[in-house]
């Protein structure tokens, strides 16, 4: 297949093949019972306007072409799908073939650039000159600041004060890229407070400003917009796998935080029932300890951040505090579309502990020379576990999403592996 078709934003080439995976969400922004818009009146108009503008952009071939060209020329797409035979050998499953989808090789080192570029271009098309975004670990903020620098947009990033102290190198990156950082001190100084501040700013400045949300969650239309901009991952992987192996994979694994890299990789395979889709969340110190972020595996449906979805609640029914060694997975919610596929059984929801992720990180680093992000290492570690439990049949063909690179995690890894005598 031509490279051009490989890196389309998603829907066009699949429609051309007679497959329309975009049946979701419905006109109310719902995936089954999940999703919707649980927001104050003041936000509703902004969301509905964004949805209308997005649908126009999506139907406009000049927008689709411009995004495709930007992803190719400035973000390094398509990313590699390559075989990792040394790693596969360590799993000791006869005939096993493992491929990695290398989002870590995209510009800025993670999949988040796909969504940031899509929404940045959308903002410019809508005549907006200013972007606001929240960031927790700083990865989304870096992707947004990068795209704003490229497209000449003003950039304001809200970040919890506590997060700013923990993620100093990303703070410096964002500042170098010309973003204005605004520290949020209330509400614990974390991601949740940063989201509220971004929304407040957006509503107050909606004529000039686009709110660039970072994962496939939140109120409609964000889960769908972010998913669409991330489906490029799976569309490429599907074509690349067919090209290399002449068949589809048996298993596709991805880590799940808010769910954007996972739904982006899974989406192209939804209509292929023989392909098993496995989402791997953070089991932290173990689900039984309560210190985890396994929302799909251990949560229950509820309303959070403007949408109805699986959520982690504590004993009093409040949003639970979470823990993961991977900052990008440390979130008590998850997007509505994955919530829906959990309930239908289309996506199998698993969780990997910090220790399993660290093993995944080490095994892949040593066998192949690839240092994955700790988030991605959850998917790698879970695959190692599946092999050990003899749950992978001989001759299986597996694709693992490597959502990002591990440079940001070196201090954490050193500390953890040091303690463990690794
Ligand atoms: C942010 C991040 C994640 C988690 O976000 P999703 O929306 O679930 O994809 C995973 N991996 C990396 C490298 C990240 O930066």
UniProtKB/TrEMBL annotation:
NCBIfam families: trpB (TIGR00263)
The EC number(s) this enzyme carries: 4.2.1.20
Family: Belongs to the TrpB family.
CDD domains: Trp-synth_B
Domain of life: Bacteria
PANTHER family per UniProt: TRYPTOPHAN SYNTHASE (PTHR48077:SF3), TRYPTOPHAN SYNTHASE-RELATED (PTHR48077)
Protein name per its UniProtKB record: Tryptophan synthase beta chain
PROSITE patterns reported for this sequence: TRP_SYNTHASE_BETA
UniProt key word Translocase: no
Pathway(s) this gene product operates in, as recorded in its UniProt entry: Amino-acid biosynthesis; L-tryptophan biosynthesis; L-tryptophan from chorismate: step 5/5
Purpose: The beta subunit is responsible for the synthesis of L-tryptophan from indole and L-serine.
Record-annotated Tryptophan synthase beta chain-like PALP domain positions: 75-404
Keywords: Amino-acid biosynthesis, Aromatic amino acid biosynthesis, Lyase, Pyridoxal phosphate, Tryptophan biosynthesis
DNA-binding among keywords: no
Catalytic activity as recorded in UniProt: (1S,2R)-1-C-(indol-3-yl)glycerol 3-phosphate + L-serine = D-glyceraldehyde 3-phosphate + L-tryptophan + H2O
Name of the coding gene: trpB
Cofactor(s) for this UniProt protein: pyridoxal 5'-phosphate
Residue positions, PTM N6-(pyridoxal phosphate)lysine: 112
Species for this entry: Nocardia goodfellowii
Lineage summary: Bacteria, Bacillati, Actinomycetota, Actinomycetes, Mycobacteriales
